[in-house]
Structures are given as structure tokens and as C-alpha cells.
Task: structure prediction
Amino acid sequence: GNSVTQMEGPVTLSEEAFLTINCTYTATGYPSLFWYVQYPGEGLQLLLKATKADDKGSNKGFEATYRKETTSFHLEKGSVQVSDSAVYFCALSEANFGNEKLTFGTGTRLTIIP
Amino acid sequence: DSGVTQTPKHLITATGQRVTLRCSPRSGDLSVYWYQQSLDQGLQFLIQYYNGEERAKGNILERFSAQQFPDLHSELNLSSLELGDSALYFCASSVDWSGGQEEQYFGPGTRLTVT
Result:
């Protein structure tokens, strides 16, 4: 079956540091890949997505590139802010006759200190 | 605000009881998904409905059931509750079937505590 593996947290960085959160996946076909973010006390929000190999998703300074050869979708940001503190989830969706369930990684808690 | 609403926000109940969680999808969205988020299992897909019909099932216990009504709102019924059912239950919705490329919009969740 499908699976997503994320680097374990928690991750603590200073403001303006460079961020990488690793994500690798296993899928039988050609999945779409997503990063969702969960701020304290809230539901999940889509941060970015990529639907085919070599696509780059980007939003709010975050980027991730769909790498089919390494089955990876690592999240990066050049300069993090305190407001980026949240839990980040890598996920994939492999539609099968309309079943678009998301398979999530375990989540990585990110804390940015001023 | 995602446009997906869930009620109640918090629910505290005893073991053996039955509860109903309610979800209203975004206007126009036909698909509704239920997910469970717990400390030991992480975020897990439970069940999907599309325009009133069950589309897919994930790791949903037999004690749990769901339905989607003609107005497209959905309810998740949890019965014979156990301590291990304590979790955050999310509902999500999406427009239509689109080969897995469409974003799912998540509600704020219902936190269930079983005592």
C-alpha cells in the first residue's frame, strides 16, 4: 500500500534560518503530493502541492519539488519566521476510481524561536 | 476559514456511549472525507462519501458508521465508545473527483474525549 515517511521532529530553528523537512513516499502509481500545515488549535490547510514528476509547488516562501527518481517531496524555506511554527504533514493522493483519500506522514512539529 | 464546518467542537462522553459528529462541506463540494487524528495512530483516513454514496473506506472500525445526506452534510456515528477512540476527528471536502489532484479543505475538527 501507499505510505509517506517524514523526518521526525520536533524541529527547532532560529528565525531566518533555512528549513528542510524531508519526505519520501511509496506508491504503486503516479500520486499527487501535498504539504499540509496545522497551526495550533486549527484544522489542516493546504500549503502546496505537485501533481506530476518535476513539478515544483510553492506558497508563502515554501517550496517542494516532486522527485520521482528519489520518491521524495522535501519541504524547504529559505528564511523561517516565528509565524511558521506549526505541524507540517506530507501527504499523497493516488486516485483509484474516485477514491482520493490522503495518506499522511506522521507530521513534523516546527518551532521557530526569535 | 476553509468553509467546512464541524459540530460540536468538543465532546466528552463515557465508555460504551454513542455520539454523532456532524460536518457541513464547502458550498458546492460533493465529496466528504472523515479522518481521525490520534497521538499513536497519526492522521488516518476513515471513509469518503461522494454525492450521497459511500466511495471508499479506510481504517474505520465496525462500531463506526457514516452517511451523507441529500443536502450533502455528513454525520459520523461512533458507538460502544472505548478510551482508545479519544481523538480529533476531521472532516474534509473537495469539489469533485479529479484524479487525486484536487485540494481537500479541512474543518476545524471535533475533539472527542472518552472517559
Remarks:
- The two ends of chain A are 41 Å apart (CA to CA).
- The first strand of chain A starts at residue 3 and ends at 6.
- The mean pLDDT of chain A is 92.
- Chain A touches chain B at residues 31-32, 34, 36, 42-46, 49, 51, 89, 93-95, 98-107 (CB under 8 Å).
